[in-house]
Batch of 3 targets.
Target 1
Amino acid sequence: FYLADIGGNQALDAFYLLIMGVFVFFMQCGFALLEAGTVRSKNTKNILLKNLLDACLGAIIWWAWGMGVAYGDSASEDGNVFIGTAVGGSGAFLAAGWGTPKGGFDGSDGYTISLWFFQYVFAAAAATIVSGAVAERAQLVAYLIYTSVITGFIYPVVVHWVWCNNGFLSGGFTADKSKTILGGCLDFAGSGVVHMTGGVAALCGAFVIKPRIGRFDENGNAVPMPGQSTPFQVLGTFILWMGWYGFNPGSTLGITPAGYGTIMARAAMCTTLSAAVGGITVVGFGRIFSKTYDVGMVCNGILAG
């Protein structure tokens, strides 16, 4: 364990990133509870198995090549603007070269490995977004093929575009703006990289698979399909809300540089207010249009916020 060998503030930044990553990883528990509570009891084991395997497959893929595709040539001035590569045969693929400073990935540096973990849990979150959108109507093998593709070949490429210092959409990291399109874009905590990528994949999956059998009647009207456990839905929502305090404030990727504490605190405040306003808004609109208070919709409002 290399943190003890790091001098200065880097040990604190590595520890901070590791703790924030644990918060984000715990969101997998929130996803599992929320989805298990929302589906019918006959599909509980299926949805939980998908969530478990998301985390397992994601870890192996992110270690083997996901991190490399995302950040493999981050130390090279002439790196690929579209996809990460192995600079000098090292980099982040299979953790090759992490024992030396070659290629910008120094494995004797605890911060690098903490960064790997933090980026892994982001990738796992992006993949898990889709499991709810195709719940109760996707075969396990098909879903595992999907999660391997998005974690290994789609999400890390998008990360390279926006968050690597060679990406053609990286307005915040690519110093040579001539490599970018219109100067690139800024994405602090993954609203585009994580949530839009996962959301578009979820939309495509739901469009292809179509609604659950019996979800609509012959006139096209929605038929209620209540989930099996409202307590699971609420508990899962609270866990996801808590996990976002690692997701958003943790996206500073450190705590010791000047101004980072302020950014972290603002992110925490905005996360709190956004979730709260989303929940209250759904309560109000639900009362106006349906004359009821729907716990499940309030959970959706909080998560959307």
Target 2
Amino acid sequence: DVPMDGSNPTLIDAYGGFEHSMIPHYSGGVGAGWLERGGIKVIANIRGGGEYGPSWHKAALREKRHKCFEDVDAIAQALIRSEVTSYEKLALIGGSNGGLLVGNVITRSTGAKLFGAAVCQVPLLDMKRYSHLLAGASWMAEYGNPDIPEDWKFLRSFSPYHVLRHDILGISEEIEENKTLSSSNIGKTNEDDMKENEKKDETWKCPKILFTTSTMDDRVHPGHARKMVSSLQNEAGLAKAPVVCYWENVEGGHGGAADNSQIAEMWTITYEFLVKALDF
């Protein structure tokens, strides 16, 4: 009974890493928060995951990371082409490594034009410093070592924070050497930060986006999300990033919530954002 006219609010849920398999499963929260309100949920089996064995995982490791982003683009294009949905009604959600995925999709010129909204949960976004923060060093087999120049060359291409500031906004990359994930830098800009590179993407516009994280995350530092939000709000501005929402729980670890009441609050915020962003 789904109308094939592009009007269906649709949410793609994707991860694409660490040989983790995304499989359909029952979720009362998804049912109450999304499906019962008329939304469609799509579980994406993209390269980098484990759905089709080790080779599926290896297909998106390190310098091949872009393959999982391309797979999400292809799924979105297929949903739009078949008129299950339209870009105004299509959203993407992912957490942790899936947050890295979301960050890359929204900062790629193709992906940003395919989605009306996105939810980026406990994400990795600064791939220059991820290995020096919390559990990051244990993920270098998956992503690469940013302290090795050969690895940083490909890591740079899927570091959303760097792509946003330097490739899209044209801010000088020289000042990046002096930046840290310290909260003291959040929201601060100066004249040196705003020096322009020759490169700039004038056509890019960020989908409506919600970032969620936890102050007590012991795996992915909350500074990743903080820095990205700061850049979108203070450097990209309303013209390029008209709706940027941020929620940081002070408890909860990497799951973002410490108990059932906080889980309910986190997902209520998420689904309410999506309902408003996709206008249904």
Target 3
Amino acid sequence: DGGTTKNEDVTPSTGLRSPESSLSERDIKDPKSDEQASSGKKVDAAAAAENPASEINCDSEEEDSLSEALHRELKLSADAESEMKKVLVLLDFNGTLVFRDKDCSIRNLKADYSVGHTQFFIRPFARELVCHLVNDPRCKVAIYTSIMAKNMRPVLDAFDDHYQQMSSAGRFEPIRVGGSTFSTHSSLLQHCVGVFDQPFNAPDPQGKKQWDTVRDLRRIWADSRIRIGGFGPANTLMVEAEPRKVRDWRDNSVVIEEYTIGQMSSPGRGSTAVLSRLLAYLDDVLLPQMQRDGATVPQILRRSPYPGH
């Protein structure tokens, strides 16, 4: 997430707090009980525009109908979905989905949203990636960050609010997911399993800064929300933009190119290629292979490595 700073409630002298003491119920959003299924196919805005009658508001009371429509498209029975092998996708946020300008030092570009004195610039294709993942029955999404939950929650709220405002203004290109079209925003905070913050990380003994941390999946797998979902080493995938943070967990991670100020300042605020490549790998390689007998995330990453990983 671009690294924690002293302003992010990390106290080197006292070390890391335990995960059990870190988050209140207000900091964590449990997943909705009614999962929205999808076939996880790629964005097809042109097809959606040609068939506006198929648009479904995924944030309305039509969610049950949406689930039924997607089940028909996938030809899935309730038993088939219950037997589906789900993958826990732990998404990094800063540097992966957004660029964070902590001091509001960028004045020649308009930020997508601000929280306090921090500006956020959303990476191209972030909405499409989020929409696909939170509506794909083959995976569950969680946020994995080195920022404290009390500081991260307003950031995620503002991320969702930005897209809700765009949706209300009719500024969305529809997104095709399976046989249905999403013309509104699928809330990342409401649909994610949880926000796993700084106490779910470990101190980085090789870090350049005293407060640097690395990911520690043992702390994630020990959490009751993750145990209930049946997630562990065989079916967990981290998506990270800083290689050093996942160096102990290469068998469970893909590293994508970090969203930097250079990319953010380029025309169109950078290419959609990085996140669209990630979605293509998940949708066409990892998630389908997970449905095969005995396939695990580490096995798939070894035999079908993520491009550039």
